[in-house]
Amino acid sequence: MSEALVTIGETSASGGLTARINPLGAELWSLTDGEGREYMTDADPAFWSGHAPLLFPIIGALAENTLRLDGHAFTMAKHGFARRSMFAPVQVEAAAARFRLTDSPETRAVYPFGFVLEAAYRIAGMTLHTCVSVFNPNAKVLPFSFGFHPAFAWPLPGGAEKHAHKLVFAAEEAAQLRQVAPGTGVLLPRTVPSPAQGRELVLHEDLFRADALIWEKVASRSLSYGAEGGAWLDIAFPDMPSLGVWQVPGARYVCIEPWAGHADPEGFAGDFREKPGIVLLAPGETRSFCMDVTVRPR
User: Fold this and answer.
1) ∠ at Cα 157 (153, 158), nearest 5°?
2) Got the DSSP string for 134-199?
3) Scanning 71, 97, 241, 261, which has the fewest C-beta atoms within 10 Å of its C-beta?
4) Whole-angstrom distance, CA of residue 134 vs CA of residue 113
5) Is the distance from CB of 155 to CB of 162 less than 8 angstroms?
6) Average pLDDT for 59-68
7) What's the angle, vertex CA 41, arms to CA 34 and CA 167, rounded to 5?
8) Contact criterion met (CB below 8 Å) for 287 and 247
9) Distance CA 217, CA 233 (A)
10) DSSP string of 222-271?
């Protein structure tokens, strides 16, 4: 659906950024600088054809793909339905756009709640600001998770070697990480040693042979991704308490995924409202989740 992309940003002459967003999923498909260099995935279907899906109302997998509420069971695929739903563009300006998804008979069949989900994108200079808000129109608490799932080019444009790329966290992170079970995608109870050294994680395909690296409680609320002598991305996620880093080994992207929530823990069979990490939004309230990506080209 590339012909339907909404384009926002600066003119190439100004040296700013241009973003292209697909209303299907309100998904960021492209982020380029004034010289036309692409900072997002090439979406090669041999690895993964996603770009930057928005994860709602779940992140990752449910145990047996089943969401349990008040004694009822609903089937929901990995990462929820927002990424496969058509959002309505409700505001499109030169450097900003906002998209909206509301509940429907189709969503209520698998998630029996009303909701308003809005994704707002705005470019200012060399920063793409993204804020996603969830509004609860119900008379009862709205339980959900929300996550970003952007796939950035690896290597980034600028000429640095792929295996020179690293993540530099704002704070020193925990020495242990969580992982998901092969096949089911549920969160394993055991932890594994973090491959990070101090505040730095040097990237290599072998890190992802067992799927994502998951910081269930990330200390940082920002990090930088890039390589010495090449381009860098500064990524801020002030509202997100968890972080996943993932790729299909061999692909030309790395996903840096701030989350509010995570997959079901292995063996979890409780009510969705009781799931560890779940967000509980009071009636009439709105919760926003923001991520800023600042490009530092070479």
Assistant:
1) 150
2) EE--SSS-EEE-EEE--EEESSPTTS--GGG-EEEESSPPPSEEEEE-TTT-PEEEEEEE---BTT
3) 71
4) 12
5) yes
6) 96
7) 90
8) no
9) 22
10) EEEEE-TTS-EEEEE-TT--EEEEE--TT-SEEEEEEEES-SPBTT--S-
Residues found in the chain: 298
Residue type at 186 in one-letter notation: V
Alpha carbons 222 and 144: distance in angstroms, whole number: 23
Q: What's the CATH code of the domain at 214?
A: 2.70.98.10
AA letter at 257: E
Q: Which structural domain range is residue 221 located in?
A: 2-296
Q: In percent, how much of the chain has pLDDT > 70?
A: 97
For 98, phi then psi, to 5°, come to -135, 140
202 burial level (CB within 10 Å; 0-12, 13-18, 19+): middle
pLDDT at position 11 over 80: no
Q: Rg of the chain over CA atoms, in angstroms?
A: 19
For residues 283 and 53, what is the distance between their CA atoms, to the nearest angstrom?
26
CA angle 150, 152, 156 (to 5 degrees): 165
Q: Residue type at 161?
A: E
The pLDDT of residue 138 is above 60 = yes
The answer to whether the Cα torsion of 220, 225, 227, 232 is positive or negative is: negative
For the chain, give the mean pLDDT. Answer: 95
* Structure token pair of residue 152: 């950035």
List b or e across 62-97, with b for residues whose CB sees 16 or more CB atoms inside 10 angstroms. Answer: bbebebbeeeeebebeebbbbbebebeeeeeeebbb
C-alpha–C-alpha distance, residues 86 and 114, integer Å: 16
